[in-house]
Amino acid sequence: MTLTLYxxxxxxxxxxxxxxxxxxxxxxxxDVNTHNAFITEYRAASTIGIGNNQAAEQDLGDHQDLGAIExxxxxxxxxxxxxxxxxxxxxxxxxxxxxxENKTNTNFFHGRFGIQIEDFPNYDLAPIGTGDTQIGLxxxxxxxxxxxxxxxxxxxxxxxxxIVDKGDGT
Length: 170
Prior knowledge:
There is one protein chain. The protein has one helix spanning 91-100, and strands at residues 3-7, 23-26, 37-52, 63-80, 113-117, 136-145, 155-165. The chain is mainly beta. The strands form 2 sheets. A 4-stranded antiparallel sheet has the order 3-4-7-6, covered by helices on one side. A 3-stranded antiparallel sheet has the order 2-1-5, with no helix packed on it. The mean pLDDT is 85.
């Protein structure tokens, strides 16, 4: 299963025409003895708002569906050979850059990130920066856990969180 996470910068860019520093194809290989990127688990999760009905005429225990609140992607994985020399094409360097730089820009107000999941295509999302259907993923954050010295070769475990922004508050 290949999962591709990518970042667009200008109108017209998509998963097929990006430079290598704006795209990571996780699980493209099974070789953990060289510097590679892997996803071990992913989740696509929606959150629906449910509130207690506080209307005077209703029972206080009644619940009310308030609609979609957010849709979130959570990617758990690791980078093998984390001690690879720092370079522009180093996966840790790329993800650190993505974490530090702007998550939106003037071409993509609702997120610059897209995702393509080979074995779960119903949840692929390509950023759209124009028209009435603007949508994108916003990089919410990354948590690194590179402190496991027992694994050989050294690896850096991570969790990436991305949130869908449709431009309509969801």
